[in-house]
Structure formats: structure tokens, C-alpha cells
Fold:
Amino acid sequence: MTSYDLTGRKALVTGGARGLGAGMAEALAAAGAAVAVADVLEDVGKETAQSLRDAGATAEFVALDVTEDSSWEQAVPSVVDALGGLDIVVNNAGVEITSLLADLDPAGLRTMLEVNVLGTALGIKHAFRAMRPGGAAGGGGAVVNIASVAATIAFPGIAGYSATKSAIDRLTKVAAAESGKLGYGVRVNCIYPGLTPTTMGNKLAVDVAEIGLFPSPEEAAAAVVSLTPGGRLGQVDDMADAVVFLASDAAKFITGAGLPVDGGMGM
Structure:
């Protein structure tokens, strides 16, 4: 029986400076992986990496704008060099801009498309190039993409975000098929996190109240809980544990899958 031991693995987490990404980086490190915290938030990202080192982990910060191919081209070799390889890529970086469809701002939707969809697609691209035979790391590995319960439900105010997270689901499945067909040795899966009270999650509750969908942020959060058989909001460690599982050998025959981590909200 295999475990979730990631000793000797090297991981890169995008959007790893704070929120879900920081929790995922911490969980991967706790399971034994060396971790690169990748983000545009340099000061916060460096603090997160330092906190991981203070806890005894091997961790580095790498500057990365997930929407820029050239940024990936610099970041991935840097991570491979600093950590001595690359086995796990977690495409977590994302943004959410709340809007009713009748009030949609094209600029906001373009931002979500670039960060959530393009950023994930480029993450898969550069993970494949590094991990496939002949790549800079070349030993195969695992990619875990972060979609959302928003890809599986119809919740007012998040149409653009839902569309981008649905795209991540499709990217995951096609990437898994290509990796298998071409012999890359890289498993590709995604998780669908439920609403979690991070900075982004709390802002969503405020935003849907401000556009008139709920009387208050508290009632917005309560509405989510009422739709969740698990009876609560998600926690960062719920999502982080799922990432560790999919990155580990316990999931060695799982690829192209989407794992709901939403307390049943999206069933």
C-alpha cells in the first residue's frame, strides 16, 4: 500500500505566496517535497518560502507571471537548477472578478481568461517540456490544476470565473490524453475547490452582496453552506491535502480526473 510520502520530489506551486497556494506549498513540504513558491508577489512569496525553510523544508521563491511565456521560460530552469529537478507542478494562480452578465466588463473577463486559462495552459506546457523524456528534469511527474466548484454549479455573479474554471477542466483532460499518447510520463489531474475563506473567497462574498445578490457577505456565505451537504465552507488544508494525494504515488493510476473538494456542493 502506497502513502502520500513525497520525499525527494520537487514541486512548483503557482500563486504560492498566499491563500490556497501557500497552503498547498506547505502541505507538499510537510509531505517531504522541496518546493518552489512561484508568484508575482515577490515580498510575500519570499516570506512564504522563508517560513517553509524555518519549518525545516527546502524551499525557494521564484518570480513568475503565469500569463507570460517568457516568464515561464526563465522560471522553470531556475527551479530545476535550485531544487535539482521538477516532479510536481501545481497550477493554482487565479483571479476572480464578480459581475452580473448584464454588467460584464470585457477587461475583467480578459484578465480572468489570461490568468486562469492561459496561465494554466502555459503551466502545463512548461511542465511537459521539463518533465518529459529529454526535458530538463526528464523523469515524468504530476500536474495538478486548480479548477473550482464554480465549474460544476450555476451560481449568480460568477459567470466569467465559472467559464474559465470550466476551461481548466477541459485543459486537464486533453493534457492527460496528450501526455499518455506521447509517452511523457506525466499525470494530469485537477481539483474543484469549494468556497474557502481566503482573501479571494472573502472578497467574493463581499462582491456578490455589493451587486445586490445577497443582503450581506455573511448571508452570501450562509447560502453557500446551505447548498453544501458537508455543512461548512472549505478550509485551506482540505484543498492542500487533495493536491498532495494527486501528486503522490497513491494516485499513480489516476490521470485526467477532476476531484471535487467541495463538501458535495457540486454533486
User: Anything to note?
Assistant: The beta strands are 10-14, 34-39, 59-63, 88-91, 141-146, 186-193, 258-261. Residues 196-233 form one domain. The first strand starts at residue 10 and ends at 14. The CA atoms of residues 142 and 187 lie 5 Å apart.
